[in-house]
Design brief:
The protein is of the alpha/beta class and 366 residues long. Helices cover 29% and strands 16% of the residues. It has one domain: 3-Layer(aba) Sandwich (Lysozyme-like).
């Protein structure tokens, strides 16, 4: 090749362009590898923000402790989580005349159908016998579960911390819930979402449940624990005072000081009763929004909406049976049971559901 061609300006410009393009593609690939996932994106390596659905991991972008992690809360265990180990077994509890009636605190989502109990709570009708036989052998596949789960039910735990919540649910009452949300925003998943946990009576088959750490809502005539749990610092800002008999409350964030999202207690009407409640913490709202977005992405039938009244605000009474059957979305425990008030008047429904909606990628409609 003649020497002059090596210094040919168009040729050199082309070589430089190739080099710049290669660098740009490399940088884009590196950024892509480290980009923050969208809640509901599938994960293949456990890093600390994933929930488990039918054996598969999905991102939330919030701190998640699985039942398989150190310090997690395991709803699959039959013995008590807390107390002396020699008295923790289910058999020991029965000998003492206390504890849950059955060793398991959960069962399979088709239980009510298999037991020939009313199926009107399943909007799409009962599962066919051949599907039930298959599920008994290996559990739900993700596509099957996506056709069934269409409700996310919010509770406050009236225990104050997730550690106490799990002790009361699992060790004392023999109940269960898929998620617990602690004061610092830590989400605890206690079992795979393919399981039917016992948290919401007639909707257990089709729902996912979460217990949010909060002392609850009370009328002025009730003996409220709120003065024991909330105080104000020198600047007048409200903070949560976990009672001394609970130690650090099991909070995972070192030296965490919980504060309600609104400084003053919130008063509102639920089920026709005027109730007072302190708001959830900003950390709880942040994690709940992200978890809700993830669930709405993984479960396309779980619409991003909540029961509304005639004015478009959140409904503050329970749903009629026929409305509960047809409702798909996010709802409170009180929406399904007339004797319940959780998650209470303080929950900002639009912050949670509207915030989740903004985080989600567009999903196909069913």
């Amino acid at each position: 090749m003649p020497r002059a061609s090596l210094t040919n300006k168009p040729f050199l410009n082309f070589v430089r362009w190739l080099g710049h393009a290669a660098l740009a593609l490399t940088a884009l690939a590196l950024v892509g590898c480290h980009a923050t996932p969208t809640p509901g994106d599938q994960a293949y390596v456990r890093k600390g923000d994933e929930i488990m659905v039918a054996g598969q991991l999905f991102h939330t972008n919030a701190p998640v402790v699985l039942w398989t992690d150190p310090g997690g809360y395991d709803a699959y265990r039959v013995e008590k989580r807390f107390g002396p180990i020699e008295r923790a077994s289910w058999e020991a509890m029965q000998k003492e005349g206390r504890g849950p009636e059955t060793p398991a605190r959960y069962n399979t989502r088709f239980f009510r159908i298999a037991e020939k109990q009313p199926t009107r709570w399943w909007p799409d009708g009962p599962l066919p016998p051949e599907q039930i036989a298959r599920l008994r052998g290996g559990g739900w596949s993700l596509p099957e579960l996506q056709q069934v789960v269409d409700q996310f039910i919010l509770h406050y735990d009236a225990c104050g911390t997730s550690r106490t919540c799990f002790r009361v649910l699992h060790d004392v009452r023999g109940l269960s819930v898929h998620f617990m949300l602690d004061l610092d925003g830590t989400i605890y998943q206690t079992c795979d979402l393919k399981e039917r946990t016992w948290h919401a009576t007639v909707s257990n088959d089709r729902s996912i449940g979460i217990e949010i750490a909060n002392m609850g809502a009370y009328t002025k005539d009730e003996n409220s624990p709120l003065p024991k749990w909330y105080a104000k610092d020198e600047s007048g800002q409200t903070y949560i005072t976990i009672p001394d008999d609970q130690g650090d409350g099991g909070i995972r964030t070192p030296n965490f000081v919980g504060r309600p999202a609104r400084n003053e207690p919130v008063t509102g009407v639920i089920q026709g009763r005027l109730l007072t409640q302190y708001d959830f913490t900003p950390q709880q709202y942040d994690s709940l929004i992200k978890l809700t977005a993830a669930l709405g992405t993984v479960f396309p039938k779980l619409t991003m909406d909540y029961p509304r009244d005639a004015q478009g605000g959140v409904l503050t009474t329970h749903l009629a049976d026929e409305d509960l059957v047809s409702f798909r979305g996010v709802l409170g425990h009180y929406h399904m049971q007339e004797d319940k008030a959780d998650p209470g008047p303080a929950l900002d429904w639009e912050k949670v559901v509207g915030g989740a909606r903004k985080l989600m990628r567009p999903q196909p409609k069913y």
